[in-house]
Amino acid sequence: EAAVTQSPRNKVTVTGGNVTLSCRQTNSHNYMYWYRQDTGHGLRLIHYSYGAGNLQIGDVPDGYKATRTTQEDFFLLLELASPSQTSLYFCASSDLGVYAEQFFGPGTRLTVL
Amino acid sequence: QQKVQQSPESLIVPEGGMASLNCTSSDRNVDYFWWYRQHSGKSPKMLMSIFSNGEKEEGRFTVHLNKASLHTSLHIRDSQPSDSALYLCAASIDMGYKLTFGTGTSLLVDP
């Protein structure tokens, strides 16, 4: 099974602060994704990438930047955090084949005060 | 942007009973459905997927798909307390790289 790790697991910041969430996958998957999960909204896709240097816009990208530095590493950046970005963030990865299963990391709980 | 609607929002079934969960997409271009299960405090894990009309069975779990109505359902027979979880339906177009998730059905199996 794919191994996806996230750090930090919990983060508290203040409004206007800078936050970087990290994700690493060790199974050489091509695709990586960032989601946020909120009660009543389910999982919503923020950004995704199909390889180092590539970035695709998801469904709720406003206020977020992302960067894929290597095959393994995908970062989510909140440059001016707002309370509306308080959420549970999941990273996921999937193989190149069509309709490939997505494997999720353990999640990062972010609180913006 | 497509929407994925799940019903019911929550469901309680007795241990050993049958749980039935529903999911419908609003986008006629949807070509694949997934069901993910998320236990409390954990990350989602893929349970089953389906892309062709009909049904697919894996152990106690059966998935149905009606492509004409873009409706899929998940049925869990002989439900166990360990099945208590949030069940998320996801749909994709464009070869499945970009998923749209529903808001989920929270299942509680009452021992």
Describe this structure in words.
The complex is a heterodimer of chains A (113) and B (111). Chain A is 0% helix and 51% strand. With 113 residues, chain A is mainly beta. In chain A, the strands form 2 sheets. In chain A, strands 2, 4, 5, 6, 9, 10 and 11 form a 7-stranded mixed sheet that branches. In chain A, strands 1-3-8-7 form a 4-stranded antiparallel sheet, with no helix packed on it. The radius of gyration of chain A is 13 Å and the shape is globular. The N and C termini of chain A lie far apart (36 Å). The mean pLDDT of chain A is 94. The mean pLDDT of chain B is 94. In chain B, a hairpin with a 6-residue loop joins strand 4 and strand 5. The termini of chain B are far apart. Chain B contains no helices and 11 strands. With 111 residues, chain B is mainly β. In chain B, the strands form 2 sheets. In chain B, strands 2, 4, 5, 9, 10 and 11 form a 6-stranded mixed sheet that branches. A 5-stranded antiparallel sheet of chain B has the order 1-3-8-7-6, with no helix packed on it. At the A-B interface, strand 5 and strand 10 of A face strand 5, strand 9 and strand 10 of B.
